[in-house]
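Replying to the earlier thread about multi-chain prediction with a worked example.

Input:
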Amino acid sequence: MLDIGGDNLFVLEFGDILHYYTPYTATLFLVALIFTGLVIASRPEKQVDIAFGGDAYYAKETTLSEMRFRRFMAIACGLATMGAMGSGDLFNFTLFASLVGIANIGIVAAVKSRHVLDAAYEYGIVAMVATLPLFGGAALILATTGTLSIPALAAGGFAVPLVGKAFLALGVIGEGMAPFYAAKAEMFRAPGAPYVIMCSLSSLLIFLRVVEIVITI
Amino acid sequence: MIEYLVFAAAFGLLLLGLHRKVIARVQMRPGPPVWQEILHALKFSFKSTWVPKTASATLYVGVVLIGIGIWSAALFVVLAGESILILFAIYMLHKVVEHGFGLSSGSPYGKFGGVRSVISAASEIPLFVTIAAIYFFTGSLLLDDIIAYQTVHGPLLLIAPPAAIAMYLVILSKMPYGPFSIVEGKELVSGYKTEHFGVWRAGIAVIDGTKTFVLLFAFVAIFIGAVPFSLALIIMTVILVSLSFVCAVTPMLSPYDSVTVQGLITGLMLLYAGYLWWVMP
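Result:
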């Protein structure tokens, strides 16, 4: 197996499914863990907005019920991201990536603002469509090679189709909404920095992980 | 190990001071003394400090510590000759830290700095072209292997100049007062840094200093190879002065122009990576 992320630190086995951690994936895992801890420990900020056309300004309040729901979704997002960082199985990785997409929609969809809800709806459509290449990529690789184990694929001897890798990357970009930042900026009108940051962080981390997977297999 | 961190932060701040001085001299202003950024960091360390009433307190403080943590880790990755994929992951995670700085205070200036940070994520993609090009040539992403490759074949700067240009542009996009510094635009006061003051601002200075040192040191190690440490510092200074000239003569682009230009650069670099993939055995 290529050691592009450094030598294996340890392997966690669940029957024939395994999670492996290199310095690279362990770093990503730790970052996800730290930010999930911050989500648990932080309360949302009071976003200050200037009333248009005057000198007045006001601070947006986040209600307790909204905060609880968004915190729950942000923690789910953090857990899914941590799962995706160490996964040694392509199918599990795609499941975790799609869970990140769902949790991201949940983080913003609880905000009662037209702009934010519009952006959440648009992202929902993109994330839903992106599951097709995401799972399609994994299915293509399974159909061609007969395995979904990343270490087995990385060990060589399999002709992993390029289109499968491209589909995986495309699916992750869609789930992580990386190229849809214009819509994301609308989402960031939402108060609740600790939760909104999980959207940004999880997108970035699953993108960084898929880069490693695509180079490795 | 702490002495490495202190040296990296101090030398990085000295480089940022030199950056301001060179820009000022090119623009025919006297400019601040080169140690100004170090003085700033020391001054802020002793200023009175609190957390704004509107801020998400834990996140407001936490991002400062995370920023220092990730760049300290990046320094040790470079010094230990570990995978440059980790280094570049940390570089991209800095985007999230900037975003955290901007959003956590509740200030509209910080928020727009954070949002600009997110929309300018296109500037990170050339990093992966750099990684891809290096991997095509060296067959490894471990810094030690890359340095060993250059000892035999010569500097990657000559073998893969577009990859070096890509990383140069990535460093340029992180330099203050540069064409792509939209996250710190003066119309946003200090952008994402606006509401972090006192000790928190000193923490940001440490992050900026360490980041500058790590990125320039990594550039030397990746594209020039093994050189004595003192020579590496001189080369880093020369690269920084060249960046300062670019910043001095280039106006800051508007956010959308900045993203467009970075997108075009990314497209060109992807073409180069595709070409390498096609021609390399």
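The interface with chain B takes residues 3-6, 22-24, 27-28, 31, 34-35, 38, 41-50, 59, 178, 181-182, 184-185, 188, 191, 193-194, 196-197, 200-201, 204, 208, 211-212, 215 of chain A (CB under 8 Å).

Feel free to reuse this layout for your own posts.
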